[in-house]
Design a protein that fits this description.
Length: about 290
């Protein structure tokens, strides 16, 4: 890649010049929000949905984004054009901005807005056939009434601690429960299980992000005539499932072949997981905002 251009507060700067203040509350406190978005064949997948979630996260933490949604969309499109990118990953970050060493967000006059576009390191294609090894972890998902996981905040320590625990277990992904022992999500992905041809995913009020991929899969289930239920379940239901899969912007739709030492279903991606992945991949370059014509 030649020069990497980054959008930073209204300017396009090189990677070397993309610097944020040590007084930025995003850095000091994780006070801010973000989105991770894919671009497929010049299409920003589910652009409006990602922007909608960004503005919802901002509203929830009382952060006023000083740009309209279509202005942010244009900044993403321009960053993509300047990097000559057709396929990749977009990281859109809005932090509370520069303040002092106190917590008070009123000291932060201007949010920091930045957009990075990059190639994405994704799972190898065989992982989509063979599935991942996952473990359940002892850390609980953030309590919704402490820090609601529906907010895609810059405070990802909950997820990082969980990722570390799955690394220690030499696993590919973690499964987080909430304080009541109900399954919530993976470290950075939503979770689905299949039992007797019925697909289940936890309701997000239990403590999960309202994933854009999750919603796309729910819609695809409807289109394909699959029966889907949003209801609470426990690790027991996961162990006895016919199929288990994760959904997320980076992972798309990927099966788990083994969880806490139990083999899931056939020990490979099951037919419903593979069908949903196939159908999902048909829409990724169509549903969204086209920066370049494919
Ligand atoms: N849950 C959490 C906690 C997430 O962070 C998802 C679910 C899936 O949501 P989407 O909208 O992407 O379908 C996410 C988002 C990474 C990485 O590097 C992953 C996410 C975000 C940022 C980085 O793996 N996942």
């Amino acid at each position: 890649m030649s020069e990497q251009w980054i959008y930073l507060d209204g300017q396009y700067v090189t990677k070397e010049n993309a610097k944020v203040s040590v007084f930025d509350h995003g850095f000091l406190y994780g006070d801010g929000i973000f989105e991770g978005i894919r671009i497929y064949d010049g299409n920003i997948f589910k652009c409006a949905e990602h922007l909608g979630r960004l503005y919802d996260s901002a509203k929830s933490i009382g952060l006023v984004i000083p740009l309209a949604q279509d202005e942010i969309r244009e900044a993403m499109a321009e960053t993509i054009r300047r990097n000559d990118m057709r396929n990749g990953y977009i990281r859109l970050v809005v932090s509370r901005g520069v303040g002092n060493l106190g917590l008070d967000p009123r000291r932060c006059a201007n949010p920091t807005i930045l957009i990075i576009v990059e190639q994405l390191a994704i799972y190898p294609e065989e992982a989509y056939i063979n599935g991942l090894r996952a473990v359940s972890v002892s850390q609980r998902r953030n309590l919704p009434d402490a820090l609601n996981p529906k907010i895609k905040s810059l405070n990802y320590l909950n997820n990082i601690l969980v990722k570390m625990q799955s690394n220690f277990a030499d696993a590919d992904e973690a499964i987080m429960m909430n304080a009541q022992g109900y399954v919530t999500e993976g470290s950075g992905d939503n979770i689905f299980i299949v039992k007797n041809n019925v697909i289940y995913t936890p309701p997000c009020y239990l403590g999960a992000l309202e994933g854009i991929t999750r919603l796309a899969i729910i819609e695809l289930c409807e289109t394909l005539g699959y029966k889907l239920k949003e209801e609470p379940f426990t690790m027991h239901d996961v162990y006895i499932a016919d199929e288990v899969f994760f959904t997320g912007t980076a992972a798309e739709v990927i099966a788990a072949r083994e969880i806490d030492g139990r083999v899931i279903g056939s020990g490979q991606a099951g037919p419903i997981t593979l069908k949903l992945l196939e159908e999902f991949r048909k829409i990724v370059s169509l549903d969204g905002y086209k920066v370049w014509e494919a």
